[in-house]
Amino acid sequence: MTGTQDTWTGLVNRAYDHARPAVRFGDLTWTGRELLDRAGGAADWLDTLGLAPGTPVPALVATSADALALVIGGAGSGHPLAPLGVRMTAPEIAAVLDALDSQVLIAQCEFAELAQQVVSLSGSRLHVVGELPTHGRDLTAAPQQLATVLHTSGTTGRPKPVPMTQARLAARARVNGRLCALDPDSFYGGSVPFHHIAGLGNIAVALAAGALITGLPRFTVEGWTLLRDLGITHTSMVPAMLETLHAAGQARHRTLRTLQYGGAPVRPDTLRRTYEAMPGVRMLNMFGQTEGSPITVLTPEDHREAVAGRAELLRSVGRAAPGTELRVHGAGPDGIGEIHARADHFFHVDPEGWLHSGDLGRVAADGYVYLSGRGSDMIIRGGENVHPLEVETVLAAHPGVADAAVTGAPDERLGQTVVAFVVPSDPEAPPDPAELRAHTRARLSGYKVPVRWWFLSELPRNPNGKVLRHRLREPYEEGESRA
């Protein structure tokens, strides 16, 4: 197979031109050449769908060998795959298909029933993925052709498509691959859903590096033990998954080299326990989004410094990623504004190349970026701006807090006031609100401290794990007591 250096397909072609194991799922193992031959067969099958070149192919697929073959084959044959969330409802998926103006939907057998419901609503044609043929055809692509299409998480509305060109996906693979120290001797295994930027997005990086690949459709403690027993060297997760592993006493892993995380800060105590359970692991926090990632990086060296005494670094998302230019747009007196970034590995940029992240934050004098949340999440309390993420990060550092979210509630005098929803580490013994109030006040201005506290068993989240703030409602009726 052939390809150019400026394309993701070219990187993958060269990385797997060998007879060593490349894919391992259960009892199934493919060599590098077998993976590429299966990708060629997947391209042949996608050709039969009758779509115009470059048309995205919506897919209900889970992390598997066939899913990798479909992505590689689609990218190298003008049929870019657009994986969709299999935990969404049929009406939600149908709405995404309408936005893509798609004529077809492909689905693995286990999702055929859901797919049938979708096509009955959308009018698309359903094609169920059977056994893919094997064909050693050449897969090539031009730098500006689409490699794949991922969708945003849809926290505030319908998921939006993010087209990923060959050149920009190749650039992302090179940046992330170096940061994660991925190479042909690596064994990558994740458990983030395939359609997510931390799912296929990270797998695409590992594929470009020529790593051995495995994975699970979703995270469970039992699944983690399977990945650990296989001997993976690289993985990615969110801190809540890491907390779950520690609580279950299953975080140990003696061969893990790099643990990449994102979506939330890791607590100092959790970081210390992780180093004890995973000796020598490189912890890496990447801040970014489907439209472009990484924007900033909290490096393994930063994490070691945090454990050595600079715990405040864990409240940041690190400094600009390699090759990335940062600016804070519309900054106020506190230095907080919207984070804009420019780099070759971003997918959705303005005419001048800037990615408008939608995330509010500030850049400290030493270059570390501290986020304050989304602009739409801001609470305005008596004329003062309160950024929920800043408060949540402080709360998450309390040992009695497993998870937390902060919202604004209407207030006749102040306009809005600050309310906290807390998932306690021990449901039988939640922390005293007075203790949480003192903890927060010692680290933040008084107007940022929540005035009411509610304890929940879990926070409402979308299928990608993001908190749905609009579903956080105080449970009392007028006249009832408040926490």
Q: What does this protein structure show overall?
A:
By secondary structure, the protein is α/β, with parallel strands linked by helices. Among the domains are: 163 residues, Rossmann fold (3-Layer(aba) Sandwich), CATH 3.40.50.980; 91 residues, GMP Synthetase, Chain A, domain 3 (2-Layer Sandwich). 28% of the residues lie in helices and 27% in strands. The strands form 8 sheets. Strands 11-12-13-14-15 form a 5-stranded mixed β-sheet. It has a 4-stranded parallel β-sheet with strand order 4-3-5-6. The chain is globular and about 65 Å long.
Query: What ranges have pLDDT less than 50 throughout 5 or more consecutive residues?
Result: 477-483
> How much beta, percentage-wise?
25-35%
CATH-level-2 architecture of the domain at 1-152 and 198-208: 3-Layer(aba) Sandwich
Helix content: 25-40%
Shape: globular
| CATH fold type of the domain at 1-152 and 198-208 | Rossmann fold
Strand order of the largest sheet: 11-12-13-14-15
The value of Rg in angstroms is 23 Å
Distance between the termini: 64 Å
CATH class annotation of the domain at 1-152 and 198-208: Alpha Beta
Estimate the mean pLDDT confidence: 91
Number of strands: 24
Number of helices: 13
**Biggest β-sheet description:** 5 strands, mixed
**Which structural class is indicated by helix and strand composition?**
alpha/beta
Topology, please?
Blueprint: H1 8-15, E1 21-25, E2 28-31, H2 32-47, E3 57-60, H3 65-75, E4 81-83, H4 90-100, E5 104-108, H5 112-122, E6 125-129, E7 146-151, E8 161-165, H6 166-179, E9 187-190, H7 200-209, E10 212-215, H8 221-230, E11 234-237, H9 239-247, E12 258-261, H10 268-277, E13 282-289, E14 292-298, H11 300-308, E15 319-320, E16 325-329, E17 337-342, E18 354-363, E19 369-374, E20 379-381, E21 384-386, H12 388-396, E22 401-411, E23 415-424, H13 433-441, E24 452-455
Parallel strand pairs: 3-4, 3-5, 5-6, 9-10, 11-12, 12-13, 23-24
Antiparallel strand pairs: 1-2, 7-8, 13-14, 14-15, 16-17, 17-18, 18-19, 20-21, 22-23
Helix pairs in contact: 1-7, 2-3, 4-5, 6-7
